Amino acid sequence: MSHKKRVFVSGCYDMLHSGHVAFFEEAATYGDLYVGLGSDQTIWDLKGRKTINNERERLYMVKSIRYVKDAWINSGSGIMDFEKEVREFKPDIFFVNSDGYTPEKEVFCKELAIKLVVSNRIPSEGLPARSTTSLRQECRIPYRVELCGGWLDQPSLNSLIPGSVIVMSIEPTIEFNDKSGMATSSRKKAIDLWQTQIPSGNREQLAKLIFCVENPPGTKTISGSQDQLGILLPGLNKLNYDNGYWPVSIESITDDATLKFIAEHLYLIQLPQRKQNYDVLGNTNINAASAKRLSDATERCWAGMKAHDAEKWGKATAECFEAQLEMFPAMSTPEVQAAIGQYRNQAHGWKLTGAGGGGYLILISDTPISNAIKVSPCHLDN
């Protein structure tokens, strides 16, 4: 008689809810289910917050679910905190959610001959789809995704050549990792000030408030204003800089057709965390020619978005990334290049959400990309 397959899942499972149980139920259809939980320290390192329930409480609750054969606290850290346990346990199947999929996990599973299966995220009949993010916060403060022109909000570049940064505010339907290039630090400042909702008032002035809070007098490394404006201005925005930290003008797109087009063609793939002592400014080579190339690519990117031309948008995005690498070569890590190589033939273009590893790879494609994360743009009423 053949043995029952062993299925492994990993996660936080804080604020246990029906979505977690449905995930376990789906995973258990493949065999006996074993769960590796992230430690309190791992979650702090990844999310920059404490858990509601500590690791002992979370382990107790997960072990009590009838679909779970056994569970433990993973001994490692970061996104791959389960590596030691999985190598020793050798499950047949590694089961993940779409927002938990990473190319690194896929390579890891291939190395150990483990089948990687991505959840369909189907809630139990009659129950709503649940996520910890939706339960943790009735927080409507968005995240920000930078789509082209990053670094041009810094005078070190825009003093050489005027240029723009294209940003989009996105719904907080996913709890993005800390230091992921999604303006998480600016968002935290906004939450500290306003808790769950952006107050009424002029959004640009509110962004200036967050900018000042994040960059008090004496700050040596200024947090670029694309972060604060990106989370507070609804829709798609082109921030035009000319020798300063604040844009001289802003062009905005909030029509449903364009935002829907962006959302339909935009995909995010989670990348491994930055290595310890990572220095994005290593071997920096800021120069006018590369800054102009970046600025010109941003203009073509904006034109492609407005024309609903994914190919034009994508090619300009790839050129934007190449121009960034000319000036900041440390942004390109082996993990980033491996991810680009994996998806190069499926996308028109790509770049990073942030400066280096630890964030997400942005892909622009006409065809669906499996296991990728989808985002929802924010509108004016958010």
Describe this entry's structure for a reader:
The chain is α/β, with parallel strands linked by helices. The chain is 37% helix and 17% strand. The strands form three sheets. Strands 3-2-1-4-5 form a five-stranded parallel sheet, sandwiched between helices. Helix 8 packs across helix 9 (203-214) and helix 12 runs antiparallel to helix 13. It starts with 5 loop residues before the first strand and ends in an 18-residue tail after the last strand. Mean pLDDT is 89; it is low at 133-137.
Low-confidence sequence ranges: 133-137
What is the tally of helical segments? 14
The assigned structural class equals alpha/beta
Shape: globular
Query: What share of residues is helical?
Result: 25-40%
User: Strand portion, in percent?
Assistant: 15-25%
Number of strands: 12
Question: Biggest sheet, strands in spatial order?
Answer: 3-2-1-4-5
CATH class of the largest domain: Alpha Beta
H-E string:
EHEHHEHEHEHEHEHHHEEHEHHHEE
CATH topology-level fold name of the largest domain: Alpha-Beta Plaits
- Tell me the name of the CATH homologous superfamily of the largest domain: GHMP kinase, C-terminal domain
Largest sheet descriptor: 5 strands, parallel
Any guess at the CATH architecture of the largest domain? 2-Layer Sandwich
Number of domains: 2
Note the gap between the termini: 57 Å
In round numbers, the mean pLDDT is 89
Briefly summarize what is shown.
With 382 residues, the chain is α/β, with parallel strands linked by helices. It folds into 2 domains: 6-136, HUPs (Rossmann fold, 3-Layer(aba) Sandwich), CATH 3.40.50.620; 143-364, Alpha-Beta Plaits.
